[in-house]
What does this fold into?
Amino acid sequence: MTETELRDMICEVGRRMYEKDMVAATDGNISARLGPNRFLCTPSGVSKGFMHPSDLIIANGQGEKITGNGRVTTEFFTHLAAYEERPDIEAVVHGHPPMATALMIAGHGMAEPVIPELVMALGTIPTAAYATPGSREGSGVIRDLIRRHDAVLIDRHGAVTVGASPLDAYFKLEKVEHSALIYWAAHALGNVRILDDTQVARLRQSGSNYHEQSDLA
Ligand SMILES: [Zn+2]
It folds into this structure.
């Protein structure tokens, strides 16, 4: 993708995140890899629902601004941790999906395999340790988990998702929040049935086929 296409896509993802309540006010951030030491990222203190492509900042792998008008968000270090751990990814999205975050605050993670399509698409969703949002410590807590998972919750804070493009990473965030809504309703009804090991193994096996079948995705 060209830089222009990535700028447009990041703004579109920002609009969707804001409209879907994945963020409030100026929360959340989106980034994409432009080159070995160049990343396109959303600026700090700007609503992701109202961004113009020229609002985006280019930063380096140390989190320093190269070009752009705004400030690099402190949460960009969390994105950098994901890029460092995952050379295969091209984009990172961070938001505060309300239901997934509420599940964590109430002491329920999303690590149990409950929804087959979520297991196929993303496996289980682990929760990283609590850290002060925006702190350097916050960037460290996702490292181990993001190496093996495309979607990670951060305890009582939100979620980080990674993907082949900003839209791909955003769709994973949507899946997490949609699944959290189902988890919550199921917990409220009681008798949540967890998928057994054999069912999970089969789902994992068919996971790669799943990614190739857009009608299922
Ligand atoms: Zn945050």
Summary: The chain has one domain: 3-212. The two ends are 22 Å apart (CA to CA). Confidence is low (pLDDT under 50) at residues 212-217.
